[in-house]
Amino acid sequence: MKHERIVITGIGLTSPLGNDLETFRKALLAGQSGVTSFPVRNMGDLPSGVCEFEQTKYQKRKEVRVGTRAGGIGIFCAHEALLNAGLELDNLDPSRIGTYLGITEHGNVETETEVCQLFDHYDEEVKYWSHHHNPRTVANNPAGEITVNLGLTGPHYTVGAACAAGNAGIIQGVQMLRLEECDVALAGGVSESIRAYGIFAGFKSQGALATHEDPTKASRPFDRGRNGIVVSEGGCIYVLERLTDARKRGANIVAEILGYRINSDGTDYVLPNPERQEECIRQAVDNAGVNLADIDLVSSHATSTPQGDEQECKALRNVFDENSSTLINNTKSFIGHSMGAAGALELAGNLPSLEDGYAHATINVDELDPNCELPGLVMNEAIQKKDGISIILNNSFGMLGINSVLILKKFTD
Fold it and tell me: Of the residues 79, 212, 337, 360, which is catalytic?
């Protein structure tokens, strides 16, 4: 594999705080929560992160009905990313565009809906089961829907990496560009999680579903009163290119991807292992060819669960000592946990830091849990780093002990 420099030249997203990076970033700096109440089948209204984007901007109404929510999110983000990158499909070879999307799960929404319709309206008569069910629920669906919509003929697949998937999708795109399997990579993550009541029910049965009388305060990483995850939907797709190709076409370069690492805890289904998380961070730093002191900002994964936040904080304290000048923030406090999209979407919210030097805050920290004390933790108000922000480390971890870390830098020649 050639170790070519890989850069981001376009970003497309939909989030509970808006459908473009400028709107998303403005809300983050203002400390504005995007969490609201959402009706969940069998469970009532629950704190959730909901995306409001124009579904028919790039799809016909029939296509929206036939496709999935995750696929629709992916299609919207892919179009917006290409537009942001200044790329026109008519000028590209569709066989040289690869699509790599991280997902936490897929097919839950469609299967639950079909089962409920059969029970509620059709007396369990299977002949009413949708003939669209199989293509809707195959694991490659969200990436596949993008290729069908855009007419892409290059490689496509999803990367199932639980809540580490957003980073994993980007990493896959980097690797495929270096292998010269594609010339443009659409890479990131998507999630339709709020449409599946089983996800809410599963977290509730684990004692890991957030509750709060005010939904905007339900997601509260590091706070002593945190009590669980706020489930969210969303998506973020990046246009990745080899630096040589981006330069050749005079592209605007958003950031350069320096390094990454994915590893496994190998210890528990749910409880994170701080030793393996620390190992993943250190190995990503080595892979990036930088020093720990070079890291200006860490985007933490913390999901607002009591044990999960503590474990990540242990790892971060072991890596960044009390004398560190590295800032640490959290985006889930604003939008909840967007599962397969989390790593990609949270990274997007922090990328403008490379230009303006601001680290957005972690909101809803009314009383910091002593077990979550961290050097450089940005709480409740954004901070502008005196010497600017040049390198960002993005944490994204998931169930079954999968850890992913991505490191990016402000582009310089």
Answer: 337
Q: Check for a shared fold between 6-248 and 260-409.
A: yes
pLDDT in tens, 162-187: 999 999 999 999 999 999 999 999 99
- Can you give the residue ranges of every domain in the chain? 6-248, 260-409
Q: Is 236 a catalytic residue?
A: no
The whole-number average pLDDT for the span 28-47 is: 97
Alpha carbon distance 4, 116 (integer Å): 50
1 pLDDT tier (thresholds 50, 70, 90): low
State yes or no: is 163 an active-site residue.
yes
Just give the CATH number of 6-248: 3.40.47.10
Token reading at 221: 């990483």
Q: Which residue among 301, 313, 360, 372 is the active-site one?
A: 301
Active site residue 301: yes
Q: Name the catalytic one among 163, 182, 236, 280.
A: 163
Q: Which CATH architecture has domain 260-409?
A: 3-Layer(aba) Sandwich (3.40)
Q: Name residue, tokens 């203002």.
A: 30
CB-based contacts of 366: which residues, under 8 Å, 6+ apart? 220, 223, 224, 225
